[in-house]
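Troubleshooting entry. The earlier prediction with S-adenosyl-L-homocysteine gave an output that would not parse, so I re-checked the input for stray whitespace and re-submitted. Clean input:
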Amino acid sequence: MESAIAGRYPKFRARQIYEALYGQRKLDLRAVKTLPEALRTEFVSGAPEVESRYESVDGTVRYLLRLSDGKSVEAVFMPEQGRDTLCISSQVGCPVDCKFCLTALMGLERNLTAGEIVGQVLYIAAAHGLEPRDRQMNLVLMGQGEPLMNLEAVLKATRILVDPDGVGMSERRITVSTSGLIPKIEELGRAAVRPKLAISLNASSEEQRVELMPITRKWHLKDLLEACARYPLRPWESLTFEYVLLRGVNDSDADARRVRRLLGNLRAKVNLIALNPGPGIPFETPEPERVRSFQEIVRAGMPCFVRRPRGLDIYAACGQLKRMTDGEGLVRIGG
Ligand code: SAH
Ligand code: SF4
């Protein structure tokens, strides 16, 4: 939008719009009375609009948000005692072919712009009365897409989210998760303003990871872990490794011991996720005892948590974002 304004209005108008949109979160420019009439009516913010909304029994709300070109993308609100988490998307669909993930079945439709990434945050914040400057709001880029394949927009969005004149969040409260694009991890590490980094590990050996995440053929597990060891962590930061447990595939005690060994030298914590099932996903969820046993073994080497599934009943949980709609076993609420 700035380029459309440039040349026709004085430069300070762009700043004014920026602060109204992101700082005061006025998504409708017509409400910004300090702008000249023509600007107010001529330009639309392009903020996403809700297409549908699904609410889980656990309080999680999944939104399908419509973008200005008519495509839609998913964002999830997860309330918790004393802390809310927003999970947003970086792409429409995902080009990475992980075998356990529903989003993979969509393929890639397109990258989101920085404005569309921030727009999801602003939409959910407004819908739930959240104050992004508040320390109790966390943001994870773990919705649709591989964020590091759209790194430029992700970094620009992060700068807007962190800017005190913009949305004003702390960069410590933003996490980006990747399937392991090594050169992009290095680029992220060089950025002055950047979210925390999470890596989707999901396997305990090179061969196993190739099967589950074919991208491993290009970016080998061994090299990925070396890139992690070189990653310039800030003093307050540690790496998060996510590990989806698939029954009988990567969930044995031997797998757990290998994970502990692989990550042993890193400043890291592990989040275990028991598979969230979905149509077309050829894996099963392990029993809770198996998950606990895996956790006990990893925990001997580093902090290890089991992520509680959120919004399973509305296809809002990790790996389930594929724009599931009515007629696919879901009940729609409003929207
Ligand atoms: N594309 C990025 C960001 C998405 S995060 C990435 O893969 O890291 C989504 C997280 O959910 C990833 O850690 C992924 O491994 C995990 N995931 C994918 N499919 C899942 C499923 N069916 N059940 C549980 N977790 C899943
Ligand atoms: Fe894409 Fe992440 Fe799903 Fe893999 S797990 S297909 S990288 S969204």
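This one parsed fine. The longest helix spans residues 114-128.
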